[in-house]
Amino acid sequence: MKTRYKSTSSHRPSNPRFVRQPTVLCEWNPVSPATLWRQIQAGKFPKPLKLSIGVTAWRLTDLEAWASDPAGFALPPRAVGK
After folding, report:
1. DSSP of 35-56, one letter per residue?
2. What does the pLDDT read at residue 74?
3. Which residues of 1-82 form beta strands (DSSP E)?
4. pLDDT at 78 over 80
5. Which residues contact 33 (CB under 8 A, 6 or more apart)?
6. What phi, psi does 81 have (nearest 5°)?
7. Lateral strand order in the sheet of 49-52
């Protein structure tokens, strides 16, 4: 008989490390999806990560940095060639 792993809440992180777009639009930046993407293109909101096909999410730490000073938010400089 195979033993199955039983998940308990103690094994889950207390804060998720990634946040999906519906949560970003409801809890972090209540704007339309089009406005959100315009803000990303303008560098006024953190860029999301592509985790897999059809899965895009934001790092929680990036959202927290933006929320601490939305008007002064600036994307960190990228290394050359990346």
Report:
1. HHHHHHHTTSSPPPEEEETTEE
2. 77
3. 18-20, 49-52, 55-59
4. no
5. 21, 25
6. 85, 5
7. 18-20, 55-59, 49-52
